[in-house]
Amino acid sequence: MRVSYRFVCLAGSLFLLAAALAQKPTFTQEKVNGRDAYVLENSKMRVSALRGAGHIGEIRLKSSDPKTSINPMRVAHFQTIDPWNYDPAKHDPIYGGGPARTLQSGYMGHLLNFPQFGGPSDAEAEQGLGNHGEALAVEWKKERAETAEDAVQLWYSAHLPKNQYNVGRVLTLPRDETVLYIEEWVENLTSFDRPAHWVQHATFGPPFVEPGKNVLDMSGTRGEVRAGASETNSLESGPIRWPNGTSHDGKKVSLRAMQPGLHRGTYFGVLMDQSRERNYFTMYHTEYRVLIGYIWLTKDFPWIGDWQENKRNTHLPWEGKVIARGLEFGTTPFGGTMKNVLERGSIFGVPLYRWIAARERATTRYVAFLTKIPSGFQGVEDVRTGDGKIVITERGSRNTITLKSERRW
Questions:
Q1: pLDDT of residue 8
Q2: In a 3-state reduction of DSSP, which class is residue 125?
């Protein structure tokens, strides 16, 4: 049979074109765990950001292997809702009411705590402000989404009417990287300077989070465990030197693995390495083949808090069922009213808040990344960026994993 050379060339060209189009990054709007979401995908990775409160609820590798494609982010065991759908008469019996109700009813994955970290004052609560700030209590509207051959980008933002701020993000997912680039901004709409908390609350959940098997590494230095909830706290209060601490019964323990105590919780704050331009944390589960990490600018976020929950809290909607681990990197490691934070001022000489000037639009940049890891992976010794790549050095072996990361940030 005679086949035209021109036909073969055309067929080959069409095949290559189809392959190229198939790999082009995409943007869609979908339902993710019952919530409206903005979804960015390339051939290697999928990211979902919620319309309700802006949470990044999904960051996963695309793989046929479930030990690699797992979503590390926390998804509640109960159905969450968008904040504008909250009806106290209907939802307080489900989510518990009080200042935490908006947070708990919509909590999924990575959330922005702004301009507050922790609970409101009594006066603020009377005005309708809740735990962890107003950014998680409003709709994050899509401004625009753009797909090109080299990347997909989403611009989305929100207005905070009670606090008089605008906040927003640009999410960028390049075509052939497993790195999500995040540019985040806040805009002070008032004519006066004021202090603010600005904290990224990246929360991970089962099956990726499991006591004794979920492992954290980071470029931390010294920190402290504050007194409080001593009967159920896994750790003894007092100073710590990362990665070592003291258990509630006085034993020296590594803080890398999630503390195993059932019906207990853990929280400690750590100062990041101030000699570094960029700091990081990474997390993995010893029985899965994926590592997630974040890298950020030290000058913007000098602190991190490690919050762990192992079926301790019995209040609604948790009911003693929640297992989670949250890494909270930002301007303070400890939650509290702004008055209390200002009175404390600093720890180790490093401030616990940030001033946002009158009419200022302040910007920060950070990245989240994923990579496949081998069986028997021992953890992360260091993470460095530069020359268009992220280099991850394994503990002990000093083997390296190199990720392509070509966008300037």
A1: 47
A2: helix
For residue 375, give the amino acid letter: S
Query: What does the alpha-carbon distance between residue 34 and residue 45 come to, in Å, rounded to a whole number?
Result: 21
Long-range contact set of residues 242-251: C-beta below 8 Å, sequence gap at least 24: 242/218, 242/270, 243/217
By CB atoms closer than 10 A (0-12, 13-18, 19+), residue 150 is middle
Segment 3-16, tens digit of pLDDT: 554 544 555 555 44
Lowest mean pLDDT among 132-146, 216-230, 359-373: 216-230
Question: Which CATH number applies to 30-211+278-378: 2.30.30.30, 1.20.1260.10, 2.70.98.10, 3.30.1490.10?
Answer: 2.70.98.10
Asked if 175 and 19 count as a contact pair (C-beta separation under 8 A), the reply is no
How far lies 356's CA from each of 158, 211, 282, 350, in Å?
17, 39, 29, 17
User: What is the pLDDT, as a whole number, of residue 227?
Assistant: 86
Q: Which residues contact 374 (CB under 8 A, 6 or more apart)?
A: 289
Bridge partners of residue 366, in order along the sequence: 182, 296
- Read off the pLDDT of residues 120-156 as tens digits, 9 standing for 90 and up: 999 999 999 999 999 999 999 999 999 999 999 999 9
Per-residue pLDDT at 12: 54
For residues 235 and 226, is the Cβ–Cβ distance under 8 A?
A: no
Please give the pLDDT value at position 23. 79
Say what the alpha-carbon torsion angle 44, 257, 182, 386 is, to the nearest 10 degrees: -80
Q: Rg of the Cα trace of the chain? A: 22
Taking 50 as the threshold, does the pLDDT of residue 239 lie above it? yes
Enter the tokens of residue 295: 């890298």
For every residue of 7-71, DSSP letters joined together read: HHHHHHHHHHHHHHHHHS-EEEEEEETTEEEEEEE-SSEEEEEETBTT-EEEEEE--S-HHHH--
